[in-house]
Amino acid sequence: MTTVSIIGNGNMGTAIGGIVTAGGNNVEFIGRDADAAINGDIVVLAVGYPAVAEVIAAHGDKLAGKVVVDITNPLNFETFDSLVVPADGSAAAVIAEALPASSVLKAFNTNFAATLAGNTVGDNAATTVHIAGDSADAKALLGSVLQAGGVASVDAGALARARELEAIGFLQLTLAVQEKIGWNAGFALIK
Amino acid sequence: MTTVSIIGNGNMGTAIGGIVTAGGNNVEFIGRDADAAINGDIVVLAVGYPAVAEVIAAHGDKLAGKVVVDITNPLNFETFDSLVVPADGSAAAVIAEALPASSVLKAFNTNFAATLAGNTVGDNAATTVHIAGDSADAKALLGSVLQAGGVASVDAGALARARELEAIGFLQLTLAVQEKIGWNAGFALIK
Q: Which residues form the Pyrroline-5-carboxylate reductase catalytic N-terminal domain (chains A, B) (predicted)?
């Protein structure tokens, strides 16, 4: 039994929590209360990128030794024309630097919430969660929780590949806001 | 009737040429002969990124006023861990700078050749060609040639989005060389 702590209860956190419980694992939702205990083996930072620093300030010490999952798409939402992280880096890299005692993964940022809740991209394509990270054990743990919940995942490589995953998330968001794709659709990984 | 000149006769150039002729438009294949005439309204640089500079040196003057399509994935193929273009740029941006009198588009780099030849990603998903560029007319011209050939395309935005398209191509190649996806598969855009 794996416990997953989800910080944030928006549509992404809710969808991820649904997968975890569908697989028979435990979920706890954590708010912004800095005194809240965090019991999860995996902690999902299910907040927007601008809120991540605040979450780390509130909870960072309790994340040591845990698998921490960054799901953010760090867009400049005013211009929709760039990311707000360094061009040769990623939100995940920024978070990993802030949490040196945690195993940071990038995951879920290429999945719209509806594709996680429904486990399909559009009508027919299976949802796949890309997982990037430098710890094979951490990636395997998250992958096993997803598999238990019936959701496919793929090892996208080292945490450095978060840069490419964030590029996919960025482009996918620009296509969705222009209504070129639906919010229940986007990029499906076909094997 | 649109004429498309394709420089390079590898599997990508061949597949793109097949789409053009399927739509009733003209194709001419151009080799490295610097004296060759280039008659196309659209010129596809269907060579690997390391060969692009040589192609531009040979043919660049003849590309003025034309739509030039960059299909490259500028990977460091020794490390498979980075691109060889500036982190805040793209191969398309490098090419556009070298060809200021051309309308440069990024397209096809997220499509494996077999997905263009067969018009499907894997068994069931439709192929979509992402087209990024700063000229709406140029994007519409290429899109119409693809549509005539039965292949869907999407306007991926300004040429700056080539950076994200190259990130997708990069990640897709890393997944294929590790046999996590097939060379007839990869990212499908579901609407």
A: 32-74
